[in-house]
Design brief:
CATH topology of the largest domain: Rossmann fold
Strand order of the largest sheet: 2-3-4-1-5
Number of strands: 5
CATH class of the largest domain: Alpha Beta
Shape: elongated
Order of helices and strands: HHEHHEHHEHEHEHHHHHHHHH
Distance between the termini: 49 Å
Radius of gyration: 24 Å
Number of domains: 2
Number of helices: 17
Strand content: 5-15%
Length: 383
């Protein structure tokens, strides 16, 4: 595998192979769509690919260009991000024109941190969407040639956060791509992009990282102690970004809450279970609800694994509880409930209908027992 392309990339052999073959073919698409969870190396690989495209430059110039690429610096890298709106901003303003000096400094600091640590997750206050101003600014950038006709890359981070208006504006650039300008759209939700956008991009799928890979990244890049990193990696679903998000919460508290909600839901104490959800909101933000529901699903999957292998992946401190549950209700078909809860999670968005969704999840959990016509009087406690 090409050393320039693979430098600093963890666990993405398939994506590396695709990009390597594209480069070797000499027919590099003008637009790529990098699809996969946050925190798995997509931005880093985009920069590496640009280095590879510029690798035939004379040595002195190549080193200078590579330094610019590593720092997300123009004219070689145009980074498009979700940004806050400035006071009095309109669509004719530049993306940064109406932002305060403090906001601009925050943006620069976040990009600098990303350049230093490829697994840093850029977080900018009140940045919820990619503005049409930013997309229109692309046309100004690509209208100017890169010095010496080197390759340039336009990275659109969290591309799914483009509004429909922004996506339609981007189409104009994708339809008439200038030579040596490569678009890389990075997203974990390609279905939120217009079909006309997706059809103009060469899709590159990225794999979730392995637990041991995430554990190593957490300990080396973020100085997280080994035991905590191991727990975070197990719960991360293959994403460094999710592992880092989890690190901000009291996981012992959330594990206990998941067990409590399961106990009350299966005992048909619906409002008590709902109160447990609400207590989490009182102590944390709404993201904790996603984490909590994720833990509930992991408990259910642990019960299924225990049936066949007599071991668990996540609720190791509650293995006796799971063993008791499986001994009483081992014939329950859990997967329809898991699928329905997965569907309900998609409706959780900024607390919209939060109580309705969580109550439906409680009902689905109670149906683990009710639909299988078993004794609902069974009670189990966390151990």
């Amino acid at each position: 595998m090409n050393e320039i392309l693979s430098e600093g990339i963890v666990g993405q052999e398939r994506a590396l192979k695709i990009l390597s073959k594209l480069y070797e073919s000499g027919r590099v698409p003008h637009a790529l769509l990098f699809v996969g969870n946050a925190g798995i190396g997509r931005h880093k690989l985009a920069l590496n690919f640009l280095k590879l495209l510029n690798n035939k430059l004379p040595e002195e110039k190549r080193e200078r260009v590579f330094r610019s690429i590593e720092n997300y610096a123009e004219p070689y890298v145009k980074l498009i991000l979700p940004l806050p709106r400035g006071k009095g901003e309109n669509t004719e303003d530049g993306p940064l024109d109406k932002l305060t000096a403090q906001q601009i400094e925050e943006i620069r600091e976040q990009i600098s941190l990303k350049a230093q640590n490829p697994f840093h997750q850029i977080s900018i206050t009140a940045a919820n969407a990619i503005k049409i101003n930013s997309i229109r600014d692309i046309r100004k950038t690509i209208s100017m040639n890169v010095p010496g006709n080197e390759f340039r890359i336009i990275i659109i981070s969290n591309a799914h956060l483009m509004t429909t208006e922004s996506q339609n504006a981007l189409l104009k650039s994708l339809e008439e791509p200038p030579e040596r300008n490569i678009f890389v759209l990075i997203t974990d939700s390609p279905d939120r992009l217009l079909e006309t956008i997706r059809s103009r991009c060469w899709m590159v799928d990225f794999n979730p990282l392995k637990e041991e890979e995430i554990e190593k990244i957490l300990t080396s890049n973020f100085k997280i102690n080994t035991n905590f990193a191991k727990l975070l990696a197990a719960l991360s679903d293959g994403s460094v970004a999710k592992a880092l998000e989890l690190s901000n919460y009291n996981l012992d508290d959330l594990f206990d809450s998941a067990i409590t909600i399961l106990r009350y839901s299966m005992g048909r104490k619906y409002f008590t279970a709902l109160n447990s959800f609400e207590s989490i909101l009182e102590n944390y933000d709404s993201k904790a609800i996603f984490i909590l529901i994720g833990l509930i699903l992991k408990w259910i999957r642990d019960t299924d694994k225990f049936k066949y292998l007599e071991s668990v992946d996540y609720f190791k401190n509650n293995s006796e509880t799971i063993q008791t549950f499986v001994s009483r209700f081992g014939d329950i078909d859990i997967f329809p409930v898991v699928q329905r809860i997965d569907q309900l999670i998609k409706y959780l968005d900024n607390n919209v209908y939060l109580n309705v969704i969580t109550m439906n999840i409680i009902f689905e959990l109670s149906n683990l027992i009710i639909r299988n016509k078993v004794n609902v009087s069974y009670k189990y406690s966390s151990s």
